[in-house]
Write a structure and sequence with these properties.
The structure holds two protein chains of two kinds.
Chain A (H helix, E strand, L loop, with lengths): L7 E12 L2 E12 L3 E5 L6 H8 L7 E6 L4 H6 L3 E4 L11 H10 L7 H8 L14 H12 L6 E5 L7 H16 L3 E6 L2 H7 L2 E6 L2 E6 L1 H7 L3 E6 L5 H5 L4 E7 L2 E6 L2 H10 L5 E7 L2 H15 L4 H12 L1
Parallel strand pairs in A: 3-7, 3-8, 5-6, 6-7
Antiparallel strand pairs in A: 1-2, 1-4, 8-9, 10-12, 10-13, 11-12
Helix pairs in contact in A: 3-4, 4-5, 8-11, 11-12
Chain B lengths: L1 H16 L1 H18 L5 E2 L2 E2 H32 L1 H6 L7 H27 L7 H28 L2 H18 L9 H6 L3 H14 L5 H24 L5
Antiparallel strand pairs in B: 1-2
Helix pairs in contact in B: 1-5, 2-3, 2-5, 3-5, 3-6, 3-7, 3-9, 5-6, 6-9, 6-10, 9-10
Classes of the chains: A alpha/beta, B mainly alpha.
Chain lengths: ~325, ~240
């Protein structure tokens, strides 16, 4: 890790992946630095899994370049510097948990002792059970154990807590924090917004295969207009409202006006300075979820995409 | 290579625990030999008890390497175990390598047990080198079918892989003359199958004590073809794992 001196350990340079006419990933550029915990946040079909697959050498980019630890993804994975847990990763049946963890840890140039791996993943009690006779949650923990079976510098997780109950989810992130404390870098994909907010110190918002926002959870909220201003106003002047400073989203229903802006105070002052006297002024704070919806729906509207469809998916899944 | 061997060891451990596999590769041939092996007729001009010993050893070893691998590989591909392995430092070809090694190792007891049965129960007796040549011919046949199994396992979904591999295997067994000696027009066609090459080398050794180079070349050619198909299957499915 010391060899990177704060430079990026992973670089996506204008990476695209097309399946026929479908652009799953469309000109994605990003960098990961050592020690970060980064969330890739986006609705289903945003290109999260495809991006991770390419980083893990499971798929090849149609164009663009990915570098990890100074080499191509395949050699980065084979050198043991990257550990990963994917949604679709299966396990070898007919062996015990201990046998499987021992086997996979043995593949690593810098293996972690199997007992330590099982303790960290919380599977010591089921070590003697057969892999094909585990519950869904237990299987997920075994897959996590395989991801941390070597001294990898980067851990990649694709929706790691899907199918976990609240308690296992908390336990999972507690374990994860212990891994990060050892200086590892973590990249995980999620469509749980609170998860990105709590677990990550940096969020990459992805929609339609493109990077829409990159920043701390606070910056993302800011960027999307994390506060919403609403008021009633007779004879609404839409062209004027559209020119408000830092406007992110404007909605007008009769005499009711909803404004999302980077700085809601400044937006309100501008309305007042223009001589308007709106009634029933309210300023409400938005969570990361609405911030995220605002960012992706702007993107979808700007590109003629199904704004409502992806918003609906998001809100359904995040509640 | 160490990782590949470790994976092969794990595969062998799994197979030892798999009752279905043991019944198919050892139990079934042994049972059939006990039932019909002692007949005093001849086949291909050699004693039936010797022919049938070779036939059952070939059947057990080949079906173990073939049917077991097609089903396992197809399932493990669908369930994502192959994908999981690709995320480890294990080289990309290690999974297939380990499957082939495990098949080669586990086919040895399948062959040896039927040979022992043929010798002590059937009374088959011959010089040591003949046992070895026949054993190696069958063992090489196992390799060929393990390679074909990789090609099929990577291509065909778990839902249909069982009937497909059964049909292919039965066709090769019957047309190769493994179950009963073929005659007439069928034999002309059968001469090209890999199973026939194994049976021909074995019965030649049993009968005249000589075997023909053309059959050895045939075996090597089939191995090359099936390995080629396996490589193509693995490559072309790399992005859809």
């Amino acid at each position: 890790m010391a060899t990177h001196n704060g430079g990026p350990i992973v670089t996506f340079d204008n990476v695209s992946k097309h399946y026929g006419s479908l652009k799953a990933v469309d000109g994605l550029s990003l960098e990961l630095r050592a020690g970060e915990t980064v969330a890739i946040l986006g609705p289903n079909g945003a290109g999260k899994s495809t991006s991770l697959d390419m980083l893990l050498a499971l798929r090849k980019p149609t164009s663009g370049r990915i570098k990890a630890f100074g080499s191509d993804p395949y050699h980065a994975v084979k050198s043991g510097r990257v550990g990963a847990m994917l949604q679709s990763g299966g396990l070898m049946p007919e062996v015990t948990v201990r046998e499987l963890v021992t086997l996979v840890s043995g593949f690593h140039p810098r293996p972690v002792p199997p007992e330590t791996v099982m303790k960290r993943a919380g599977i010591s009690e089921i070590a003697e059970q057969r892999v094909d006779r585990l519950s869904g949650g237990q299987t997920q923990r075994v897959r996590f154990a395989l991801a941390i079976a070597g001294e990898s510098e980067l851990i990649v997780l694709d929706e790691p807590t899907t199918a976990m109950d609240v308690e296992s989810r908390q336990l999972f992130w507690a374990n994860m924090k212990a891994e990060v404390a050892e200086g590892r870098t973590v990249l995980f994909a999620t469509h749980y917004l609170e998860e990105a907010d709590h677990a990550a110190d940096r969020i990459l918002v992805i929609n339609r295969g493109r990077l829409l926002a990159d920043g701390t959870p606070d910056e993302i909220k800011q960027r999307a207009g994390a506060r919403r201003l609403s008021f009633r106003l007779e004879q609404v002047d839409e062209p004027f409202l559209l020119q408000l400073p830092g406007l992110v989203n404007l909605e007008i229903r009769g005499d009711l006006v909803y404004i999302q802006a980077a700085d809601s105070d400044a937006a309100l002052y501008a309305v007042l300075d223009a001589g308007y006297r709106p009634r029933e002024i309210e300023v409400t704070s938005l969570g990361l979820e609405q911030a995220f919806l605002a960012i992706t729906s702007q993107d979808n509207e700007a590109n003629g995409g199904p704004a409502s469809a992806s918003s609906a998916t998001m809100s359904k899944e995040s509640i | 290579m160490n990782g590949t061997l470790a994976l092969a060891m794990a595969e062998i451990r799994r197979l030892r625990r798999n009752r279905r596999y043991l019944i198919l590769t050892i139990g079934f041939p042994v049972l059939l030999y006990l039932i019909v092996g002692k007949s005093d007729t001849t086949a291909y001009g050699v004693a039936f008890k010797a022919f049938y010993m070779v036939s059952m050893a070939t059947f057990g070893a080949l079906s173990g390497a073939f049917n077991n691998n097609t089903i396992r590989i197809s399932q493990e591909r669908k369930e994502g175990w192959i994908r999981q392995l690709r995320l480890t430092p294990l080289p990309a070809n290690a999974y297939v390598g380990a499957k082939l090694i495990a098949s080669m190792v586990t086919s040895v007891p399948a062959i040896v047990i039927v040979f022992l049965l043929g010798h002590f129960y059937g009374g088959v007796d011959m010089q040591a080198w003949k046992w070895i040549v026949i054993g190696v011919a069958i063992w090489f046949g196992t390799f060929i079918f393990a390679a074909l199994a990789v090609a099929i396992g990577y291509r065909i979904s778990p839902d249909s892989v069982q009937p497909v591999s059964m049909i292919i295997f039965f066709a090769f067994s019957i047309f190769g003359g493994l179950w009963f000696p073929l005659s007439g027009g069928l034999q002309g066609f059968a001469k090209f199958t890999p199973t026939y090459q194994v049976a021909k080398i074995s019965t030649d050794v049993l009968g005249t004590g000589n075997f023909q180079a053309v059959n050895v070349i045939g075996l090597v050619a089939w191995l090359a073809i099936f390995l080629g198909l396996a490589v193509l299957a693995v490559r072309s499915t790399a992005e859809t794992m």
